[in-house]
Amino acid sequence: MAVIELTSENFNSEVLECDKTVLIDFWASWCAPCRMLSPVVDEIAEENTQIKVCKVNVDKEGELAAAFRVSSIPMLVVIKDKKVVETSVGVVPKQKILQMINI
Questions:
Q1: 3-class DSSP state for residue 65?
Q2: Residues with catalytic roles
Q3: Could you tell me the sign of the dihedral formed by the alpha carbons of 41, 17, 82, 74, in that order?
Q4: Which positions ≥6 away from 71 have C-beta within 8 Å?
Q5: pLDDT tens digit string along 66-96?
Q6: Strand segments (E) across 1-103
Q7: How far apart are CA 3 and CA 92, in angstroms?
Q8: d(CA 24, CA 38)
């Protein structure tokens, strides 16, 4: 499944109204660790159709970043049943992300 670019306009429909587990990657184009993590997140999106994978550019979507209290990037957030169940900051291995999703 393709990665969805989240904005404050589509957040409710893509995340809160979704019945799947949602993985959100908060990132910025100038962030080297974000660029390292991005292909891993893309790979997870392609391999796992049972989850929804989204990305938030913190420079363009400051309101969403503030709502999730993003203070460092990259930051991953896992949402199940409209609730944040797991977060991580920094580059993490693919296996750790998969563990976060399967809580």
A1: helix
A2: 31, 34
A3: positive
A4: none
A5: 999 999 999 999 999 999 999 999 999 999 9
A6: 4-5, 21-27, 51-57, 75-80, 83-89
A7: 18
A8: 11
